[in-house]
Amino acid sequence: MSSSNAVGYLAGIYQGFSGTIKGLMVTLRYLFKPSITVNYPVAKLKPYDRFRGALLFDAVTCIGCNLCVKACPSDCIDLQNMTTPEGKKIAKVSWYSIDFGKCNYCKLCEEACPTKPKSVWHSLDYENVFFSRHEMVRAWQQGDPWCGTYFDPADKKYRVSQEQIPIEEIPARR
Amino acid sequence: MTEIRSQDLGERIRENQQEKFSDSLKPATRNPQPATSLKTDQMFVNLGPQHPSTHGVLRLALTLDGEVIIRAEPDVGYLHRGTEKLSEVRGYHHCVVMTDRWDYVSAMPNNLVFCLASEKLLNLQVPERAEYLRVIMCELNRLASHLLFFGTYGIDIGAFTPFLHAFREREMVLDLFEMVCGARMTFNYIRIGGVAQDLPQSWIEKCKEFLGYFKFRLKEYDDLLSFNPIFMDRTKNVGLITPRQAVDWGLSGPNIRGSGVPYDVRKTDPYSVYGKLDFEVCVGESGSCWDRYYVRMREMAQSVRLVEHCLNALPSGDIVAKGVAKMPKPMPGEAYAHVEGSRGDLGIYLVSDGSFSPYRMHVRAPSYINLAILQEALVGLKVSDMIAVLGSIDIVLGEVDR
After folding, report:
1. Closest CA to B330 of B188, B194, B193
2. Arithmetic mean of pLDDT, B188-203
3. Which of A53, A114, B248, B282 lies at a CB distance of 3.0 to 4.6 Å from A125, suitable for a disulfide?
4. Do A28 and A63 lie in a common domain?
């Protein structure tokens, strides 16, 4: 009785050791392989072509048809048509805003856009970090850059957001 | 020198300390009483909602007697976003975007089940290429989801290394998704009537390359974790769920198959092209944590097999059915569709009143129903085993609360 207990005890110890060593052998193999991670802030990965990053808007091609506003599931796009002096709407946009706090990054607006090239599209920019909630709402008016400006309630002015990342400068992925 | 066994040594040290520091404990240690006559107070413990082992914002209200759980009540609702109600004011295409947010770890089956239900309402015939693409994506997503389970379950038990291995492979699956649909977790890829985009160039080669690489990793996972004696001691014969219990509580997915019930929607009620495909339903034996774990590991091998089969049999043709409106307006009626998601039988019930948005949507979320069995499975277990059971049920709180 006691001898079988001792054998079982020793067998348990042996199994515990051999199992641990088996696992360690797997990790040992990876010790000599190159690292697969990337030093993020220094080195960056470029997303694949279809990547759905932050939305960009181009007023030159936009015809103000409101289809992207209707396609958006979370109402994050706002649009106003330009008007003639008589007050009649024309196929030009005077105000366009995207709320990145609400955006789902679902590509439905880009698919709905009828122009060529698309007036609203997903860029490859994945570093959409904002300093404040106001900065999340990007508005475009006459004379603004593509990515738009945000309303700063502190001095009640529209500002160009700082630290925009030029994603085109990122080297190709893998 | 006389040999002193470690146990005896420990007792002696304890006795010495008690003699030194506490006179009141003397009688109890000298004349130990039987455990039944010990009077202990019940203790109430809140596990969560910010506990690192609960995999999300889940609160478990535990009543303990010493170290033994005598009552466990899962408390859910911390991640409720009301997508079922929101769908009542949105169009059918918009609802697909919201389905991504239920089970964010495996969003493809969510997309699929909503599209299947809507297609039933709209009487759409999906092209065969789209059906194959859907199956490929769902099975790859099952891989990604089970890999996440494998990694986090190791962490729950105390093994950190498998997590890194699992995430390395999961990243490759997510890269494949990113190439196809542009997103890594919230895909919005499977659409009503088909899929959003066709495969990009050289995607099939990349996918095959990954599958060839992944097959050999499964053996490594077994060495690392599955057959590790320490891991098996922690999970075998722990949290047993009998087949009877599993059916009574309405479990589904790997949890019911771990108990030995071969219930798989892909076999019992084939949808999409699963009827034409050849795969096994993996079942466990005893319904322990280890069985549920190992069912998932074997399912990964089956998923690889399914994807390979689909890639070889992929027909050419359209990817979207003809005549899908931009704002679909189905006839009044109701439809129920269910699929085998990564966590179980994921069903959706849609009622249409003939308008642009559903009149009512209800989700049969497998995580939510699987979670309920904790009330029974945790009773009588020690606190340390509780995490093992909770991890083996594999819940995603986004799906539990919706």
Report:
1. B193
2. 89
3. A53
4. no
Nearest to B224 by CA among B154, B294, B292, B288: B154
Interchain proximity A50–B161, CB inside 8 Å: no
Residue B103 has pLDDT above 80, yes or no: yes
Q: What is the mean pLDDT of residues B93-114?
A: 90
Res B6 pLDDT > 50? no
Look up the ipTM and state it.
0.80
Cross-chain residue pair A106–B186, CB shorter than 8 Å: yes
Number of domains in chain B: 2
Q: Which of A23, A36, A107 lies closest to B224 in CB terms? A: A23
Give the three-class secondary structure for B348.
strand
Using an 8 Å Cβ cutoff, are B44 and B62 in contact?
Answer: yes
User: Is the model's pLDDT at B336 over the cut of 90?
Assistant: yes
Give the model confidence (pLDDT) of B350-370 as tens digits.
999 988 889 999 999 999 999
> For residue A43, is it within any domain?
no
Instruction: Classify residue B180 by burial, with Cβ atoms within 10 Å: 0-12, 13-18, 19+.
Output: buried
The chain B residue lying nearest A11, using CA atoms, is B229
- Among the partner residues A52, A105, A108, nearest to B93 by beta-carbon distance: A108
Comparing alpha-carbon positions, the chain A residue that sits nearest to B227 is A19
Helices (H) and strands (E) in chain B, counts: 17, 8
- The reply to whether residue B196 touches residue A107, judged by beta carbons under 8 angstroms, is yes
Domain containing residue B17: 1-34
Residue B394, CA distances (Å) to A155, B161, B376 in order:
50, 19, 16
pLDDT confidence of residue B161: 87
Cβ of B336: how many Cβ atoms within 10 Å? 15
Contact call for B225 and A36, based on CB within 8 A:
no
Measure B183 CA to nearest chain A CA, in Å: 6
Distance CA B142, CA B302 (A): 10
Between A19, A107, A108, which is nearest B229 by CB?
A19
Sign of the C-alpha dihedral, residues B378, B381, B387, B391?
negative
Strands, E assignment, A6-130: 55-57, 77-83, 89-99, 120-122
Which chain A residues are within 8 Å of B179, Cβ to Cβ?
48, 50
Residue B40 in domain: no
Nearest-angstrom CA–CA distance, B310 and B247: 32
Instruction: Identify the DSSP state of B382.
Output: B
Residues A88 and A13 reside in one and the same domain: no
State residue A148's pLDDT score.
Answer: 66
Least CB–CB distance from A22: residue in B100, B178, B223: B223
Q: Residue A21 belongs to what domain range?
A: 1-33
Domain count, chain A: 2
**Partners of residue A26 in chain B, C-beta under 8 Å:** 220, 223-224
Question: Is pLDDT at B344 greater than 60 in this prediction?
Answer: yes
Per residue of chain A (174 residues), give pLDDT as tens.
566 788 888 888 888 888 888 888 888 888 888 888 888 878 878 888 888 888 878 777 888 888 889 888 888 888 888 888 887 888 788 888 888 888 888 888 888 888 888 888 887 877 777 777 877 888 877 776 666 677 777 787 777 766 554 444 433 333
Helices then strands, counting H and E runs in chain A, come out as: 4, 7
